[in-house]
Design a protein that fits this description.
There is one protein chain. This protein has seven helices and two strands, in the order E-E-H-H-H-H-H-H-H. It is an all-alpha fold. It has one domain. Strands 1-2 form a two-stranded antiparallel ribbon. Strand 1 and strand 2 form a beta hairpin. Helix 2 runs antiparallel to helix 3. The longest helix is centred in the C-terminal third of the chain and has 33 residues. The protein is elongated. About 15% of the residues are buried.
């Protein structure tokens, strides 16, 4: 909540992220996400039509092509999250405290659990047939989507390390006392000679 200290929500430590900041992230991500899955049905239909024309409609090649098409759209969603969320820290001088680190990780789960389900649903719908020949393909698509999602967690960890390195205080080596140069010592010699000569003149004779 804006203006309040960090608090826990759903088991995650959530920070004092402003509503405006979160709204910007949400809107940017949603727009990019919609663009990522635009015309996917048309692309899948084109794949099936091509495979049917070559007698491969029920082949593993068709199934792989469909899965690849869906995962390619999922990759665009990953890029959208990087730009809309991670970029708010990676591309700026904004600090990245532990509470915001936890908030960002929670957003990954919040945004990508539905997206992984969408990958599974799209592949299941496109590859469904009574003999369940292609079950392994859409199941594999779900596993692959989770693996790719995990790269976002890795990038957040890298961001955290970079930010922590940037703010870590650097030890300043202590400076040894500077030795007086010969020239600086010599500069006092004329004064010493004058003082000695004056002392000799002023000394009374016995």
């Amino acid at each position: 909540m804006p203006g309040n200290p960090a608090f826990r929500l759903g088991g995650a430590h959530v920070t004092d992220i402003s509503k405006d900041f979160e709204a910007i992230c949400e809107k940017e991500f949603n727009l990019s996400r919609q663009e990522a899955f635009k015309d996917l049905d048309r692309d899948i239909s084109a794949i099936k039509s091509h495979m049917a024309s070559t007698g491969n409609l029920q082949s593993s090649s068709m199934a792989r092509a469909v899965v690849d098409a869906v995962l390619a759209r999922f990759d665009k969603v990953l890029i959208a999250f990087e730009s809309s969320y991670i970029g708010k820290w990676a591309n700026t001088d904004r600090n990245f405290p532990e509470s915001e680190y936890a908030w960002l990780k929670a957003k990954v789960t919040e945004k990508f659990d539905p997206e992984i389900l969408e990958v599974k649903t799209q592949c299941n719908s496109a590859l469904w047939e009574p003999r369940t020949t292609f079950v392994a393909f859409w199941q594999k698509a779900e596993v692959e989507a989770r693996t790719r999602r995990n790269t976002i967690f890795d990038k957040i960890e890298i961001l955290r390390l970079k930010k922590n390195q940037r703010v870590a205080p650097m030890a300043v080596p202590s400076r040894a006392p500077r030795a007086r140069s010969i020239s600086s010592v010599g500069s006092y010699a004329p004064h010493c000679r004058r003082d000695c000569q004056a002392s000799i003149r002023e000394r009374p004779l016995c």
